[in-house]
């Protein structure tokens, strides 16, 4: 018995992503993290937070938590793009801070970052703690 292999319509257009090169790591795409030390460190993030840069950002935020303590302030006003991978980084950082008795507060966010946080329903999770 022979099998039939269907290759789609004869005049099918190529996929929109065909021929495009894969994106590189976060550094090549402009992700930048700056830590302003103090009693409560402020982490300023700029650039794109996506699948390609999220691991680098997560590692840096967890490093800041280990060095500076479990209370972290995030400034995302210079973020130019953020997707679900960026939301996962924020949640992972928040989980780690809470495990150590702390919190993560969002003081500023660009419109695209705030839109993702709002769509995910996380406005309250990143609000200032009630006891401070």
Shape: globular
Query: Cα-atom Rg, whole angstroms?
Result: 20 Å
Helical proportion?
25-40%
CATH architecture: 2-Layer Sandwich
Give the structural class.
alpha/beta
- In terms of quaternary structure, the protein is single chain
Number of strands: 4
| Mean pLDDT, all residues | 81
The CATH homologous superfamily is termed STAS domain
Major sheet size, sense and barrel closure: 4 strands, mixed
Distance between the terminal alpha carbons, to the nearest Å? 74 Å
Q: Give helix and strand order, one letter per element, not per position.
A: EEHEHEH
Amount of beta strand: 15-25%
Number of helices: 3
Order of strands across the widest beta sheet?
1-2-3-4
Can you offer a commentary on this structure?
It is a single chain. With 132 residues, this protein is α/β, with parallel strands linked by helices. The protein has a single domain, classed as Transcription Regulator spoIIAA, CATH 3.30.750. Helices cover 30% and strands 24% of the residues. It has helices at 54-68, 84-99, 111-119; strands at 32-36, 42-49, 71-82, 103-109. The chain has a four-stranded mixed sheet with strand order 1-2-3-4, covered by helices on one side. The radius of gyration is 20 Å and the shape is globular. The model is unreliable at 1-9 and 15-28 (pLDDT under 50).
In brief:
By secondary structure, the protein is an alpha/beta fold.
Pick out its properties.
Transcription Regulator spoIIAA; 4 strands; 24% strand; alpha/beta; 132 residues
Strand and helix map with partners:
Blueprint (H helix, E strand, L loop, with lengths): L31 E5 L5 E8 L4 H15 L2 E12 L1 H16 L3 E7 L1 H9 L13
């Amino acid at each position: 018995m022979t099998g039939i292999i269907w290759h789609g319509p004869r005049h099918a257009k190529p996929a929109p992503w065909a021929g495009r090169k894969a994106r590189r790591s976060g550094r090549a795409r402009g992700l930048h993290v700056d830590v302003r030390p103090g009693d409560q460190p402020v982490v300023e993030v700029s650039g794109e937070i996506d699948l390609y840069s999220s691991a680098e950002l997560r590692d840096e935020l967890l490093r800041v938590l280990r060095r500076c303590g479990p209370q972290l302030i995030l400034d995302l006003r210079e973020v130019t793009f953020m997707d679900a991978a960026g939301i996962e980084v924020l949640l992972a950082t928040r989980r780690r801070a809470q495990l150590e008795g702390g919190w993560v507060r969002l003081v500023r966010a660009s419109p695209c970052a705030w839109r993702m946080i709002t769509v995910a329903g996380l406005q309250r999770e990143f609000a200032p703690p009630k006891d401070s």
